């Protein structure tokens, strides 16, 4: 849609023209049957299988008959009949108005809206044809005039150089004709037609509906403009500004359906209008980006994503929507704007990593599929369908990209198996590796190993072990040589080592060759930590067994110790030895645990390990001490006696060690408890409460990571029934609901969010343990909430009480959902009965305040049916006492307690009737006591009255 000036110029008319467009019906017939023809066309247009193009042609025919006095001729202005035009527009608007109040998604109304848009589009096409024919006619006439003048001038007598004068005159005539054509084109652009006049009238009519009270009227008006905006041609500048202002108001309409249509229209105008709205200083594009960020409706955000142009100004907002709460919107991000980019390098490195990481790890499989489609069809085309060039553009050598690049290629291979089947790695490929090609080979081999149906393809591309060992040595030597490409060769060596983990070492010759090569590499001092860890893992893979692996690593460590005598290597060797022991410990973690230590060779191996570890744990070097402690913990998992002997050491490290040692020690302690149980580990500890003190210390630690490690470890121990302590459980409840500040520990929150329901619903004993600390924790949380600071956020205690009541509900036990377990046999509601009694005592003792309200709310959430009669009687007594001595002021709560009391009384009565007991013995006792008290009061009053009478008689006698 273009905007034109409202100033009109008087166009020039041609005397001779041809008929361009003429109605098939007469003017009189059209005007007389206007109220019949137009409604019939609208009726036909709403039919399900109707061809809207033919209906648009019919309505155009009626428009020509009503609005023109004579046929439309090429090169001439339309002879408009303004009275007939007014009648036509009025009748069309009357039929349009019938559609406006109809609710959205009504098929018949939607077809009428599409018909209106189609009619405007057809009118625009007819105007375009008229302009083209006019231009052709002008050029044809100009050529004829030029030829006539040329012949006339050629016959004249020319004294001097006749040919040059003729050429000059012809050039002058051509320039005059061109100037005339340009002026006539300008006049034609400003020509007012019945189509442009209809568009202006329709816009003004629909703008009135933008402020209507009816939701559907506003929606339909915006919908018609949204569908027709591209077919409206040029409109007046003032009218365009009115439309723009109205759309800005509708983009913040309270109804999402209206905002959707307004956003669609503004998206059509985003590239054609950069003017600033004077009310807030924002352009159309900026307003759309604000809606994309803040609009609560997922459909509004989706419409903007579908229609927004992926340019530098919009890409940051588009990337944000990759984390949209709506899965469809996340999918649209990858299928539409990110796929329409001309080059994915328009995204910054950080943005690229974010969208790939979020998309490939999305919980919705359709989003993952959309990412794979974007990578395999769109982004690969940006790199000329070349995988190596694609990896170059991804900059895979950067550490933050390498992590996600493997997932990117996995998704690509999954979507394009045709490329997987075409890839081959020959000798020339392995001899001329680049960082990208080495990475591609590694990822493809790993991908093929995951699917056993592709074993044949894997055998075709997997290199021989011997050949791979030679290639690895070649690139490792290049990496160690002083060259400018050392970083590239380091990356290639890393990929070669990872590829070596995928090889088949059944070939003894290749296995020995790889073994010797890795042994030589380990003995060298110039070795990165990344390479070291991978080499140790390959050693574990090619070793005959764990004993052989352990012996080999220890021999290498001894060889490094011997190198300490060499002063040139003195600065390098200790650090390398520490890294080697770290890698050795990591390999032990992934190896099979050795539980049988009866074999003398195993005991000797363990003794050798401990000799190395005792030196490491006592070393002054922080890193070496941490890794030595880690290795000692791994060895303790292999022998129970060793674990019992060293548990005091781990506890001492937790209490007195620095942060790094503390983290290692607490992890080791949890692993040992999970392996042997708490009771077996505390045999040699002086006090059994020492373990609890350690956990309390770690839960209350200032470091968030230590809190998270402790919480996760305790959750695992309690779920496995390896450790149980009510006080620790209370601290975990307090930690979960404690006020949140800027430094919120998300790891703790996520862990406990899963732990408490799983722990409570898994066992009745767990519910009992939780109920032992429920009231204490709830009281403390109420006090904390009362003292809350302005910068702290905390869950309302009433909501906390809801969760605690739900976790201790005996009906929620997981085993009750089994088919062979009956609810009546398994439910033991004594837990809620005890909690109700404790809460009622607090209500009785608390005169008012948050704690009293919370406890009242808590009691009403408890399951108090099928309790013991003693508990029911006690609850009844406490409620009577509260109602009598300290009644509840809130009407709703008081009524709820009255209803609860009636339920309890009916349960007691029902129980007594079933068991043949006296009905309400407690009530009879209370009534007897009340009668005795009343009798005593009567006797006292009688005695007082007799004394008063005696006194009166004495006074009278006196």
Explain this structure to me?
It is a single chain. The chain starts with a strand and ends with a helix. The relative contact order is 0.02. The strands form 2 sheets. It has a two-stranded parallel sheet with strand order 1-4. Strands 2-3 form a two-stranded antiparallel ribbon. Among the domains are: 14-154 and 181-235; 239-308, Leucine-rich Repeat Variant; 546-638, no CATH class; 810-932, no CATH class. It is built from 45 helices and 4 strands. It is an all-alpha fold.
| Number of strand elements | 4
Oligomeric state of the chains? single chain
Largest sheet: 2 strands, parallel
Residue share in helices? over 70%
Q: How many angstroms separate the termini? A: 121 Å
Mean pLDDT: 82
> Would you identify the regions where 5 or more consecutive residues have pLDDT less than 50?
6-17, 184-188, 569-573, 587-601, 921-925, 930-935, 952-958
How much of the residues is beta strand, in percent? under 5%
Shape: flat
Task: Trace the largest sheet across and list its strands.
Answer: 1-4
Assign the structural class, choosing from mainly alpha, mainly beta, alpha/beta, alpha+beta, or little secondary structure: mainly alpha
Topology:
Elements: E1 2-4, E2 19-21, H1 27-32, H2 34-45, H3 52-67, E3 72-73, H4 82-97, H5 107-154, H6 162-189, H7 194-208, H8 215-228, E4 234-236, H9 237-250, H10 256-269, H11 284-294, H12 298-307, H13 315-320, H14 327-335, H15 349-360, H16 365-382, H17 387-394, H18 399-415, H19 417-422, H20 427-431, H21 435-450, H22 455-461, H23 465-480, H24 486-500, H25 508-523, H26 529-542, H27 546-562, H28 573-590, H29 600-617, H30 622-636, H31 640-656, H32 659-676, H33 678-681, H34 690-699, H35 704-719, H36 726-737, H37 746-762, H38 764-786, H39 797-807, H40 823-826, H41 830-845, H42 850-859, H43 869-885, H44 891-915, H45 921-957
Parallel strand pairs: 1-4
Antiparallel strand pairs: 2-3
Helix pairs in contact: 2-3, 2-4, 3-4, 3-5, 5-6, 5-8, 7-9, 8-10, 9-10, 10-12, 11-12, 12-14, 14-16, 15-18, 16-18, 18-21, 21-24, 23-24, 23-25, 24-26, 25-26, 26-28, 27-28, 27-29, 28-30, 29-30, 30-31, 30-32, 31-32, 32-35, 34-36, 35-37, 36-38, 37-38, 38-39, 38-41, 39-42, 41-42, 41-43, 43-44
């Amino acid at each position: 849609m273009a905007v034109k000036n409202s100033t009109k110029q008087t166009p020039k008319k041609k005397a001779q023209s041809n008929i361009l467009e003429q109605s098939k019906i007469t003017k009189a017939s059209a005007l007389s049957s206007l109220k019949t023809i137009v409604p019939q066309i609208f009726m036909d247009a709403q039919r399900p299988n109707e061809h809207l193009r033919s209906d648009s042609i019919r309505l155009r025919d009626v428009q020509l008959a009503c609005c023109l006095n004579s046929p439309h001729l090429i090169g001439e202005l339309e002879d408009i009949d303004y009275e007939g035009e007014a009648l036509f527009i009025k009748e069309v608007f009357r039929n349009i108005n019938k559609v406006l109040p109809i609710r959205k998604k009504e098929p018949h109304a939607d077809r009428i809206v599409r018909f209106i848009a189609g009619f405007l589009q057809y009118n625009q096409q007819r105007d375009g044809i008229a302009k083209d024919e006019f231009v052709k006619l002008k050029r044809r006439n100009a050529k004829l005039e030029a030829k006539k003048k040329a012949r006339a001038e050629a016959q004249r007598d020319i004294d001097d150089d006749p040919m040059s004068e003729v050429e000059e005159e012809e050039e002058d005539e051509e320039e005059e004709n061109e100037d005339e054509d340009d002026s006539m084109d300008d006049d034609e652009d400003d020509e007012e037609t019945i189509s442009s006049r209809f568009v202006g009238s329709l816009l003004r009519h629909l703008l009135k509906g933008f402020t209507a009270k009816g939701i559907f009227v506003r929606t339909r008006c915006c919908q018609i403009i949204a569908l027709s905006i591209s077919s409206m041609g040029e409109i007046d500048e003032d009218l365009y500004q009115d439309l723009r202002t109205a759309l800005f108001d509708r983009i913040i309409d309270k109804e999402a359906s209206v905002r959707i249509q307004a956003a669609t229209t503004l998206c059509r105008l985003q590239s054609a209008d950069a003017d600033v709205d004077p009310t807030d200083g924002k352009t159309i594009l900026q307003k759309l980006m604000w809606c994309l960020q803040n609009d609560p409706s997922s459909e509004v955000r989706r419409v903007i994503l579908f229609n927004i142009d992926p340019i530098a100004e919009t890409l940051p907002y588009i990337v944000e929507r990759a984390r949209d709460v709506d899965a469809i919107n996340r999918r649209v991000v990858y299928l539409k704007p990110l796929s329409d980019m001309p080059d994915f390098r328009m995204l910054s490195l950080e943005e690229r990593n974010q969208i790939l990481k979020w998309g490939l790890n999305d919980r919705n499989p359709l989003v993952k599929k959309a990412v794979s489609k974007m990578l395999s069809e769109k982004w690969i085309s940006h790199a000329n369908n070349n995988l190596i060039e694609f990896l170059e553009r991804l900059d895979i050598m950067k550490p933050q990209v390498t992590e996600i690049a493997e997932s990117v290629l996995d998704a690509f291979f999954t979507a394009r198996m045709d490329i997987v089947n075409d890839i081959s790695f020959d000798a020339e490929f392995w001899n001329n590796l680049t960082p990208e090609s080495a990475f591609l080979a590694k990822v493809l081999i790993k991908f093929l190993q995951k699917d056993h149906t592709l074993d044949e393809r894997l055998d075709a591309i997997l290199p021989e072990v011997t050949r791979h060992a030679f290639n690895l040595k070649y690139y490792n030597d290049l990496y160690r040589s002083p060259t400018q490409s050392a970083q590239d060769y380091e990356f290639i060596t890393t990929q070669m080592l990872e590829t070596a983990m995928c090889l088949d070492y059944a070939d003894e010759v290749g296995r020995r060759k790889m073994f010797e090569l890795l042994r030589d590499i380990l003995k060298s001092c110039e070795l990165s930590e990344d390479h070291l860890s991978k080499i140790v893992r390959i050693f574990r893979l090619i070793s005959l067994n764990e004993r052989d692996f352990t012996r080999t690593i220890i021999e290498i460590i001894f060889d490094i110790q011997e190198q300490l005598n060499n002063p040139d290597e003195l600065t390098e060797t200790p650090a390398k030895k520490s890294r080697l022991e770290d890698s050795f410990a990591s390999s032990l973690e992934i190896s099979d645990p050795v539980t049988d230590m009866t074999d003398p060779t195993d005991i000797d191996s363990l003794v050798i390990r401990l000799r190395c570890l005792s030196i490491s744990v006592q070393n002054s070097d922080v890193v070496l001490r941490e890794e030595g402690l880690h290795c000692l913990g791994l060895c303790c998992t292999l022998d129970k006696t060793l674990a019992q002997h060293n548990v005091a050491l781990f506890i001492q490290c937790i209490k007195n060690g620095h942060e790094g040692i503390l983290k290692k020690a607490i992890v080791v302690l949890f692993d040992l408890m999970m392996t042997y149980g708490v009771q077996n580990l505390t045999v040699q500890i002086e006090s059994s409460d020492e373990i609890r003190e350690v956990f309390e210390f770690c839960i209350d630690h200032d470091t968030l990571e230590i809190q998270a490690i402790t919480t996760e470890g305790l959750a695992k121990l309690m779920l496995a029934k390896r450790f149980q302590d009510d006080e620790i459980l209370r601290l975990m409840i307090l930690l979960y609901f404690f006020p949140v500040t800027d430094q919120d520990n998300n790891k703790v929150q996520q862990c406990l969010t899963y732990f408490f329901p799983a722990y409570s619903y898994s066992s009745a004993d767990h519910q009992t343990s939780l109920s032992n600390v429920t009231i204490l924790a709830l009281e403390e949380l109420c006090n904390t909430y009362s003292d809350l600071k302005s910068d702290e956020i905390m869950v309302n205690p009433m909501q906390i009480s809801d969760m605690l009541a739900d976790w201790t509900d005996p009906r929620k036990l997981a085993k009750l959902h089994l088919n062979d377990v009956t609810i009546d046999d398994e439910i033991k509601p004594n837990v809620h009965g005890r909690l109700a009694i404790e809460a009622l005592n607090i209500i009785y003792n608390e005169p008012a305040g948050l704690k009293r309200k919370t406890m009242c709310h808590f009691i009403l959430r408890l399951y108090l049916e099928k309790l013991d009669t003693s508990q029911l009687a006690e609850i009844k007594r406490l409620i009577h006492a509260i109602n009598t001595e300290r009644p509840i002021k809130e009407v709703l709560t008081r009524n709820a307690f009255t209803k609860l009391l009636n339920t309890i009384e009916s349960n007691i009565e029902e129980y007594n009737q079933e068991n043949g007991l006296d009905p309400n013995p407690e009530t009879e006792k209370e009534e007897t006591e009340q009668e005795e008290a009343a009798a005593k009061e009567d006797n006292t009053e009688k005695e007082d009255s007799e004394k008063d009478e005696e006194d009166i008689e004495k006074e009278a006698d006196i």
